[in-house]
Write a structure and sequence with these properties.
By secondary structure, this protein is α+β, with helices and mostly antiparallel strands. The chain has one domain. It is 30% helix and 16% strand. It has a three-stranded mixed beta sheet with strand order 2-1-3, with no helix packed on it. A two-stranded antiparallel ribbon has the order 4-5. Strand 1, helix 1 and strand 2 form a beta-alpha-beta unit. The protein starts with a strand and ends in a 6-residue tail after the last strand.
Amino acid sequence: MYGCVSPQTEINHHKNNNLIRIVPYLLDQKNKLFSFADCKFANEKEKESTGRLVMFKEFGILNSYTIESTFYSYYNPKMGQKKKVNVEDD
């Protein structure tokens, strides 16, 4: 999951950056298939035209994310192997 970063020029940038990270953190706490450690928070120049950055910069929406997913399997370093995801998995 990719999220934005509030610039240090803003007065509340620490608070904003914590608010940006809360959704991925909660996903990590509630779902073993999601990893907060694998999330990246940055405002990359080559990504300025993405919906995530446009919503963040132009409209001030802190919780705008890009999420990548797979329909086949996932790799969790804690488990040490790839695992095929079944509908029955929790």
